[in-house]
User: Which sequence fits this backbone?
């Protein structure tokens, strides 16, 4: 068992191993199974994933206070309202743009199908294999955009909102600037639609991505063992929120970690635990209210200049 994966010493109660290894796969499997059953009984895919999704959110929110990874991460930093506002605004934004993007993707997919004489997507494959394909293919644009956001200052000004979180807990999984969300969401959705992925598969992609994000940021004692080679779960993602640049510039996978190990950006040391004190280095003047974070990219030079002053 790697030391870096061990539950934090500051936890209230050490969770049973069955909980640590089982909570994520059990909840995810149950959510996907419920959505599958609902869709099989005629419920529209977009509606079928809502119940399982929110059920998973509730599970994580409850167990954060039973088996927390860090007790300190359960203490509000005047960030709950900010995180909630970000989460709601992003959900509304993506809900509004999804139909347009889907329609555009269908047009592109129709062109590709006409060129190649058939649908590119292998609809005849087993459903589970298609879901794995959706996750792997849909992650490719998000991986590279996320990586570029850490490398290019112009993109970092939008992504910095996410890294401004002073702690990790379930709600800051939605702490994103709208431009950041669109940059990662639009290419993934359009690629999958253009390749011919069905509405049902897009629903599974949305459900798994959303639930994974909640667990990924959750203040939970959990381990994935070998599954960490596929999922970019909390054990990996906590390093991504480190104040140390060499540590935060790693583990870019939003749902799967496959592309991190393919392209050499996977970071999960076995000899130490990820930091409890997270956030950004060098941006002490970054705002911590919702509207100020929304307009922060327009004030980027001022924020950087103020961060260099002794007062910051």
Assistant:
């Amino acid at each position: 068992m790697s030391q870096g994966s061990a539950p934090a010493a500051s936890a209230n109660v050490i969770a049973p191993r069955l909980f640590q290894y089982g909570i994520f796969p059990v909840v995810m499997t149950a959510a996907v199974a419920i959505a599958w059953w609902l869709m099989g009984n005629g419920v529209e895919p977009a509606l079928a994933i809502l119940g399982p999704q929110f059920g998973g959110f509730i599970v994580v929110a409850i167990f954060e206070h039973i088996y927390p990874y860090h007790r300190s991460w359960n203490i509000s930093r005047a960030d709950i309202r900010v995180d909630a506002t970000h989460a709601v605004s992003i959900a509304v934004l993506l809900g509004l743009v999804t139909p347009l993007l889907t329609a555009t993707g269908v047009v592109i997919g129709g062109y590709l199908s006409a060129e190649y004489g058939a649908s590119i997507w292998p609809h005849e494959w087993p459903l589970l294999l298609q879901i794995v394909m959706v996750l792997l293919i849909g992650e490719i644009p998000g991986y590279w955009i996320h990586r570029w956001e850490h490398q290019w200052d112009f993109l970092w000004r939008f992504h910095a909102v996410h890294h401004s979180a002073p702690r990790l807990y379930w709600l800051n999984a939605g702490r994103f600037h709208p431009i950041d969300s669109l940059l990662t969401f639009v290419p993934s959705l359009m690629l999958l639609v253009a390749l011919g992925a069905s509405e049902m598969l897009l629903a599974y992609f949305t459900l798994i991505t959303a639930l994974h994000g909640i667990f990924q940021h959750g203040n939970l004692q959990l381990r994935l063992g070998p599954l960490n080679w596929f999922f970019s779960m909390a054990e990996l993602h906590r390093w991504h929120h480190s104040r140390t640049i060499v540590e935060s510039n790693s583990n870019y996978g939003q749902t799967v970690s496959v592309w991190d190990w393919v392209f050499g950006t996977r970071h999960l040391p076995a000899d130490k635990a990820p930091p409890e004190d997270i956030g950004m280095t060098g941006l002490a003047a970054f705002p911590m209210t919702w509207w100020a974070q929304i307009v922060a990219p327009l004030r980027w030079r001022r924020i950087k200049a103020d961060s260099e002053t002794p007062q910051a």
